Amino acid sequence: MINPIERITQNRIIQLFKKELGYTYYGNWEKREHNSNVEEEILKQNLMKRGYSETLADKAVKEVYDMATTNSGNLYHRNKAMYSLLRYGVKARPDLGEQFDTIFPIDWQDFDKNEFGIAEEVTLTKGENNRRPDVVLYINGIAIGVLELKRGTTDISESINQSISNQKVLFNEWFYTTVQLLMAGNNTQGLKYGTIETQSKYYLSWKEDEIDNEGYKLDKYLKKLCNKERILDIIYNGVVFDAGVKKLPRPHQYFALKEAQEFVRKKEGGIIWHTQGSGKSLMMVMLGKWILENVANSRIVILTDRTELDDQIERVFKDVGETDVAKTRSGKELMQFLTSSRPRLVCSLIHKFGNKTETDFDAFIKELQNNPVQTQGEIFVFIDECHRTQSGKLNQVMKAVLHNAVFIGFTGTPLLKEDKKTTMDVFGRYIHTYKFNEAVEDGVVKDLMYEGRSIEQNLTSQTKVDQWFEAKTAGLNDFQKNELKKKWGTMQNVLSSKSRMEKIVADVVGDFSVKPRLRSQNGNAILVASSIYEAAKYYNLFLNTELKNKCAIITSYNPNASDVSLEDTGADNETDKEFIFKTYTDLLKEVSVKGNKSKTETYEADAKESFRKEPARMKLLIVVSKLLTGFDAPPCTYIYIDKRMQDHTLFQAICRVNRLDTDDKDFGYIIDYMELFGNVTDAINVYTSELDSEGFTKEEVGIQLKDRLKIAKDRLFTALETVESICENVASPKNDLAYIHYFCGNTENPEDLKATEYKRMALYKAIVEYIRAYANVKADFIAAEFTDAEIKRFNDKLDEYLNLREIIRIASGETIDLKAYEADMRFLIDTYIKADESEVISPFENISLLDLLETNMDKAIDSLPKEIKGNQEAVAEVIENNVRSKIVEEHLLDPKYFDHMSVLLQELIERRKKETISYRDYLKEMADVIRQVNQGKKDGVPKSLNTKGKVALYHTLDGDENLALVLEEKVQYAKQEGFRENLAKQKLVKKAIFDVLDDVSKVEEIYKIIDAHKDEY
């Protein structure tokens, strides 16, 4: 039957719970009076069956019932208190004066000892209005789950909204005090789940064994989610109360938790890669909670590099009842905590380790290695964004101090080649991965849209610039002249002229008037500048626009008089540092400090809070690098990039705009002024693709470490030998003067300096190579099995060669203080470089980045912008071939639509070849063809056609919606299992088609479509 009524679906689901899941069926409770969220008789019987005395059972039942039916406080706090009672048990004593016992209303250890039951049509009479949940799940008589069902043509959102309204005081809020799991389902969309007070946009879909396509998805996922052992595990290990919001794990978090438990049992570390915005901090909490409860004598150290995350983790652990938590204020304090037995959980900010000077630090490491700290307990170290924070010195500290600890790294981005070598050495292999495209597909984050904008800059007077250089460089030697010219070239290419920045400011202000989410004030934006100076400059420009009191600058810069004490160059102009100092001093004038924060911290905390919660009041944040990682602000919809970025940094930055928000947020938008399209598509490609290191075993990671260390050791010895051989011919006693004579000759004689230049260049190059080789292996000196004498020699040589390089550079005049020229060069740029209006240069508007990557467009677009580098003809052919392949691949599913697409593509190709269309217009039209091909249907297809099969029928029947729906219904009714392999069954399907269309010629055409859509028919 097509679209069976809800009652038929409900009957099937009741049978599923009884027969396949083994739940007891209590009956239809529509007419039953006094239905409750705690069925006292069932609970008492179960407690006594589990061996509790009648006295204790009665006391426990009374306490659970009283807690479940109290009306004090709001639903969240009642539910939280109830959860605590269920999870940690009821404390009671059989008689006065006897010891307290703990009675567990639910047996969490042995699921078979609980009674799992269901009742349907449970009429709830308390409250002003009666409601009747379709199915209620009970464990030992305690209502822990509610399922609302709808027929297949009613959107699942109606079931969700019904559940949400049931929790209102007006209806039956009281009943939900005990409820842990809320589910909504129908035959077409499957199952969604949430918990009390979950907003509809945050209801989740379970995802597991995707290749299993046997029955209804509703049935499949009820079996997965409500399996007795699974449902207990999710409630016991997965529920988190976080600052007023109750949360359940998403599937990827639950499966990561299960995988991580196996690693922990084996005392093996690893890496959890869950894409930006998919809930890494909750993952840390769930895993940490499990370790503290299941590993005897365990201690956890959580290291993050963000104050917000540090605060959140401490708060959430306290919310789940883990009160033995401390935050450290220094590395020393962390050591004190770890050498005593308490606290069990320590949170620390990573930069607390970085306050030692180079010399102190080496001595500190050496001391730790010689006198290992006697830490207490089994230590597990969680490190957030592990690829970013686990390099160099911190790595050494952790290895030296916590040599027996298990390290678990959390990252939102995969390990690229350069990170992998060090990060995998510390943490080991991947525990679990959840990639960007999976998160988009699951509706956990939003897909991204890209728009490239170009602002052409032109030099208005080369002569004036040349004259300035002649005047300024008259007294400089060749090296210094070259350095100044290099700096000018860099400034020209990298730094913005005031004119260019004004154009970007005008662009952003304009977008706030025309872009839907910005215009409606539901959304806001981030602008990424390439330096604190430019961020300050942008901020000053926005002060002259309508965003004046609605934007803020977030860079953590704290104005201090010492910043500018050495900046006065004698000229009457302002250096970069003086400009920044003045901007911040003005900005913070009216700020009153809060708590123990500085003025800057107070200002930034207020701005971030407003940006998150009041997008209409805080529309724009100007940032440099702060907030580009881990800053979650659902309203943030646009990111304007005016900074060169790639890899991790770029991906982290663009993910600031992918958080879920109100329904009008369809995508996150990237507006790029730096022509980073190739970098963006590369980054997204990396974060959606399988990595070769995901399948590594522990042993393979170990072998990799050994290989890497051997190469690193060889490189260090070679680099040291090279520097020593260059210095070999320096005359004794090899003091400062001897080195200067050898590498510079007579420093007052320009010819000597010129003649010895090759020696200096060789020396500088060799010293740089030694520094790199040294840094590459320093963290692993112990693992590389160097002797104390060798380590001392490496350290001494590093100091010696760094000093030697400075002496030679200063003696030869190969240094220049560019600060004295900075303000003049800024003036030149602002005066003689003029910017044109911005121009959109991305050819693929309105196509999301994931769709673009699916069409393999990145290969083609590498050759595009400024707009088009390279061979236009070749680029066009690559694009056309990709689109043609996609059309051929999809053709059988919807012949009529893809024939139409094929004609559009061919016409466009012919117009390009005949040159009757400009290349720019060609790209725009091609973008539209790609959009339609990826979309797989015409624009404006009615919503009732909600499957690919229905859409294909609609296209084939010339856009007749009713006919398509009638035909779908008849075919679904007529088809029998295995009809594709059985002629008789095929005839039944074809007869159904003929009965609707009464046209023999159409029957085969429609049948081919039915045959092609194997997942629907």
Automatic annotation (TrEMBL):
One of its GO terms (biological process) is DNA restriction-modification system. Keywords: ATP-binding, DNA-binding, Endonuclease, Hydrolase, Nuclease, Nucleotide-binding, Restriction system. It is an enzyme of class 3 (hydrolase). InterPro entries: Helicase_ATP-bd, HsdR_RecA-like_helicase_dom_2, P-loop_NTPase, Restrct_endonuc_type1_HsdR_N, Restrct_endonuc_typeI_HsdR, SWI2_SNF2, Type-I_R_enzyme_R_subunit. GO terms for molecular function: ATP binding; DNA binding; type I site-specific deoxyribonuclease activity. Residues 261-432 form the Helicase ATP-binding domain. It catalyses: Endonucleolytic cleavage of DNA to give random double-stranded fragments with terminal 5'-phosphates, ATP is simultaneously hydrolyzed. CDD domains: DEXHc_RE_I_HsdR (cd18030), HsdR_N (cd22332), SF2_C_EcoR124I-like (cd18800). Pfam families: HSDR_N (PF04313), SWI2_SNF2 (PF18766), T1R_D3-like (PF22679). It comes from the Bacteria. Its EC number is 3.1.21.3. SUPFAM superfamilies: P-loop containing nucleoside triphosphate hydrolases. Subunit R is required for both nuclease and ATPase activities, but not for modification. NCBIfam families: hsdR (TIGR00348). The type I restriction/modification system is composed of three polypeptides R, M and S. Belongs to the HsdR family. This is Type I restriction enzyme endonuclease subunit. The gene is hsdR_1.
